[in-house]
Amino acid sequence: MDNIALYEKFNWEALKAEDLHEKATLIRSLIPATVKTVLDVGCGNGAITNYLADYYMITGLDRSESALEFVKTNKILASADAIPSKDNVFDLVFSSELLEHLEDEVLENTVKEIKRVSKSYILISVPNAENPGKLSIQCPECNYVFNRPNHLRSFTIESLGALFPEYEMITSKVLGKKVRYYNPGLLHLKLRITPSKSWIPYFWIPESKRQTFCPSCENEFTYPYKSNLIASFLDLVNIIISPKKPYWLIVLFKKKEE
Asked: CB 3.0 to 4.6 Å from 7: which of 43, 64, 167, 201, for a disulfide?
């Protein structure tokens, strides 16, 4: 479930540019030399946008007023599924960690809008084939179960490419801290038979970072952890059978010649 209040309440000041430096430099290296104008759709607090502003004429777009307060470039307050711009305006349209947050209809319209305003290139970054259920939380107020960073879907290079059939995939990269995948069968069992307080151990998310916001009822709460033998056993089995992989997937697309 999407909820704009989630992003207005988010601590944007805590998201530092230095935390995304590796990603930002790789993104710059992937941008073709002919690109001069860039639109960053879902730019957040501009941690990457502000870095790219040293090299391109870049505009940041986000629907969160609190996030845009930190953006130092040209910026637009708008939703990604209704970009207030003419067609084919930007040499490259960039989106980082946005698509996984979108509900079906919003995702469809956002992809259409990205294509519409892009003159030549589209550069997309998403989590790399993550399993959103791994970071499930249950609200103690309304019992709604949601993903901690509010990710609603997962992407592989194949499913991402399927969103842009009119574009050629020029290059793709994976990077970032390696994160362990969670076997879907084990995860389904864990979420079904173990208490919600046992779902996210402290060694996944430390106690100091467990404040969250329910997108359904807007309840703000701290989710605790309480050890459970079955949940711990399933986590151990998962460690044995599931590999780690870089967290981010980045793909550069170029519009096909008509």
From this structure: 64
